[in-house]
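Fold it.
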Amino acid sequence: MQTYTDFDLCYKALCSRDSRFDGRFFAAVTTTGIYCRPICPAPTPYAKHVRFFTCAAAAEAAGFRACRRCHPEASPGSPEWNMRADLVARALRLIADGVVDTEGVSGLAQRLAVSERHLHRELMAEVGVGPLALARTRRAQTARLLIDQTNLSLTTIAFTAGFASIRQFNETMQTAFGCAPSAFRRSARPEKGGEGKLTLRLQYRPPFEAGTLLSYLGQRAVNGVEEVKDGCYRRTVILPASQGVIELEPMKKANAVQLRLQLTNLNDLSMLVQRCRQLFDLDMVPEMISNILAKDSLLTILVAQKPGLRIPGALDGFELAVRAILGQQISVAGARTLAGRLVAGLGVPLEQPQSSLTHFFPSAQVIANADLQGYGLTNSRITALKALASAVAAGDLVLDRSADYEVTKEQLLKLPGIGPWTVAYIVMRVMGDPDAFPVTDLALRRALEHLGVNMSVRDLEAYAEAWRPWRAYATHYLWANLAASPARNKAGSQVNAVSDEKVLSGLLQ
């Protein structure tokens, strides 16, 4: 629906400026013609003058323009669409990636294997506007973000945001914000990134457990491709039209993560911003998850100790899937070593290495055609990597958040050497399924044993029903508790997974 039906709940959140609802709905005021975030500092309007919308595009389609005080374009994304894997949710994620700008509505519909008419009908029913309106709002929001936070020229911003012409840019910004783009540029902004880096701030809903997230990524950082140092995550990236280096650093006081980036061109900026949000799980609602998980006696203390725990996503789905296969049957440190060898032997070197960042991760096409002997890989692991790379290179397997969960699971399970644990891990991190549950995971079993619980796979599956739809978050709480335990194995000895079949048979004994 284009408007929220629970008016009383939304109005209470608006009156209290409740940050938990930021990005989950927008409040439009009929007397001013403006729509705002729930946290807007402006005086609260009378209820009779307020309408609530689930997305900014629906508010704009109803004739409202964005508030200049609370900046709706900077709000976190709605968690509802990240929880879902249906047609509408997948379409919204693709639109956020800029697919309509590059491939049009026909390309969007083709990716989703539906007709344009059916896609338009489904989006209208769910969010109140069609794909073109959603794409137009996304472009305007991206442009406003760049105007506010960078020194890029307005012309560069227009085309970076996905506009086809300066005229279209000016008209859209006038409609969305009630003024020309130049009106936002009253004074030059000081450079903050340095070294030619573009700097943006990505908002999130507090609390945010940054330490655990960075520790998880740091323990698994692949030499040459990524590093975690001094509270900052850095890595190389390859996108459809560009490549470069990014840095993500949490800013607690600002409820934001600072993104510093250097790309060969900015055509992929919108996609990169979405991928970075997914990598740090910035659109989740901590209280929504803790309300469910804290009811469990096993998790109550863990949730209280680490409020706002995030699930690390993936900037590149193929890369994460490769690393999941490499992580079977060996330790975290062992998997890093194997991945580092592949990067050193098959990755493309940076023209100008930056500290420890020296290579881009090899593509699916490269791995599919490469001789993988000599990297310390078993024959079964080579077979699995080749099959995965060939499927991705041929376009038969899509590993990103636009894909259908169930279809992708079935496709992965058909590949040699890939079992339930690997599939659950990939779906959890690549596709963002909040309910993905690697029930056969050995570290998960050890985490439960550390809490004095010993369960079979069947018993654990039954027990974890109470964690739905947040079983992936429950898993990360248990993993984090095990990693922080003084009695756990020494660094680098924790096992990612014994093979799916071996763990399953061992746990069922």
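DSSP finds 23 helices and eleven strands in the chain.
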